[in-house]
Design a protein that fits this description.
- By secondary structure, the protein is α/β, with parallel strands linked by helices.
- It contains 17 helices and 16 strands.
- The chain has three domains: about 160 residues, Rossmann fold (3-Layer(aba) Sandwich), CATH 3.40.50; about 140 residues, no CATH class; about 80 residues, Type Iii Antifreeze Protein Isoform Hplc 12, CATH 3.90.1210.10.
- The strands form four sheets. The chain has a seven-stranded parallel sheet with strand order 3-4-2-1-5-6-7, with helices on both faces.
- α2 links the parallel β1 and β2.
- α1 crosses α15, α6 packs parallel to α7 and α7 packs parallel to α12.
- About 55% of the residues are buried.
- The C terminus is likely disordered.
Length: about 450
């Protein structure tokens, strides 16, 4: 609870925490919005392929014009201003920068940026969960070898779930499950960028007024983003993905402990020790009462009668037996909170969640029957959705990770809802990242399924 105190101490010695942001989209904009109000937190550079867009983002969040640097990143680091550029290499080479926030959302670029940052001795806050679930365990290993931190982004759901998991274990409770809330109905699974706004209930006029990316929003709608995030949580906590993928059982806050407990005890989990999603919609579209759409949660079990009695005495929401209880955080405000990860990495040398092992995977799954010659269009597109499954099953199926499923040609027919395998496609681009991923698969054998 002393990050702000540590930061002020650094600032008093004229040693601000110097940060670079790659990606000036929604997440990067949210980081910038708060960074200008944190004494001792110096955003040295904002890197984006579209420099004009980056400048617009800074104007939108009220970044003072006089703090834009016209010169180099190094000059900005020394004079307290911010350089806006498209040169990620110059950011990596700047010795004054201590931490990189990777917020592009592009899995291939994210892996490359993380590797470059680590090689240059910089901490990495990986907003880009797509890159993390693709190669995170290997990137975290590389970071440890270089003596830097590779961290999930506080404010985004995976890091917040990892924090709750750590709380459960630090208190000595028996961890049962972890997950997040989400607006989901089974029919959303086959949404495309053409249909997504109807599922959000937005009119064409509302969409036209905003800067909305239909593929990104479709990734949330069809469950792909949930699969990516839950696989990342599995890799960061030692929990497992369900064998057949996320089940999305509907649940409100009052029912989390009842629903997210093992079937043998009356719940919806095949066993203890799994990640899953609390849907905020019933399958028929009715809204779940008191849902946790924007939040994260854990469920856990008392180990004896005394602790069970304490659960009741101190007002925890439990299942009918009183043995299982839940804890939750009702919101996540992503980039507005990400400074916590930066400060934790720089001032404490600790990640706010990190990939520890290859335990879960987000694998490309056919959204429709795929024919020879079709081109996969990746996350949130027309051709595939991601399913979160155990890494052991992914390896056995030679499953294609969703992060490698963009601009890839199909060479064998794949039935709707079938997992796409490496053997079903031609991988001819981004072979450096393909090789890195295959290296991780070969070197990181998944452990047996956890029972938490």
């Amino acid at each position: 609870m002393n990050l702000s105190t540590k930061l002020l101490e650094r600032a008093s010695r004229n040693r601000p925490v110097r940060v670079g942001i790659i990606g000036a989209g929604k997440f990067g904009s949210m980081v910038l919005s708060q960074a200008q109000k944190i004494d001792g937190f110096h955003v040295v550079a904002v890197v984006d392929l579209d420099v004009a867009k980056a400048r617009q983002a800074m104007e939108r969040v009220g970044w003072p014009r006089e703090r834009y640097a016209a010169g180099s990143i190094g000059e900005a680091a020394r004079d307290g201003r911010t350089c806006v550029t498209n040169d990620a290499g110059a950011l990596m080479a700047c010795e004054e920068v201590e931490c990189i926030i990777e917020a592009t959302g592009h899995p291939i670029a994210g892996v490359r940026h993380a590797l470059a940052a680590i090689e240059n001795g910089k901490h990495v806050v990986m907003v880009n969960v797509e890159a993390d679930v693709l190669c995170g365990p290997l990137l975290a290993e590389r970071a440890r070898q270089k003596g830097v931190v590779y961290s999930m982004a506080y404010g985004d759901q995976p890091a917040l779930i990892c924090e709750l998991v750590d709380w459960v274990r630090a208190c000595g409770f028996e961890l049962t499950s972890a997950g997040k809330g989400m607006n989901f109905e089974p029919r959303y699974r086959y949404s495309t960028p053409d249909t997504v706004w109807g599922f959000f209930g937005w009119s064409e006029e509302e969409v036209a007024k905003g800067d909305f990316n239909p593929k990104m929003y479709n990734s949330f709608t069809d469950g792909t983003k949930a699969a990516i995030e839950m696989a990342a949580v599995a890799n960061g906590t030692g929990l497992d993905c369900p064998n057949d993928g996320l089940a999305f059982p509907p649940s409100g806050l009052h029912d989390l402990a009842r629903v997210f407990r093992p079937v043998i005890d009356g719940g919806r989990l095949e066993r203890s020790g799994l990640v899953d999603i609390a849907a905020s919609q019933e399958p028929d579209g009715r809204e779940v009462f008191n849902n946790i759409r924007y939040g994260v949660f854990v469920t856990f079990k008392a180990h004896n009668e005394y602790t069970r009695a304490c659960f009741k005495q101190y007002g925890l929401l439990t299942d009918p037996s009183g043995w299982y209880a839940s804890m939750w955080r009702p919101f996540h405000i992503i980039g507005l909170e990400t400074s916590v990860s930066v400060l934790s990495a720089v001032l404490r040398g600790e990640p706010t969640g990190t990939s520890k092992e290859f335990r879960g995977d987000a694998v490309a799954t056919a959204k429709r029957d795929l024919a020879v010659g079709d081109m996969l269009d990746g996350e949130g597109g027309y051709t595939v959705w991601a399913n979160a499954i155990p890494a052991s099953r992914s390896l056995a199926a030679r499953a294609l990770p969703i992060g490698l499923a963009h601009n890839v040609r199909v060479r064998r027919p794949v039935k709707k809802d079938a997992i796409v395998s490496y053997d079903d496609v031609e991988l001819v681009n981004d072979l450096d990242v393909v090789e890195l991923r295959r290296s991780m698969e070969g070197r990181t054998a998944p452990r047996p399924a956890s029972v938490a």
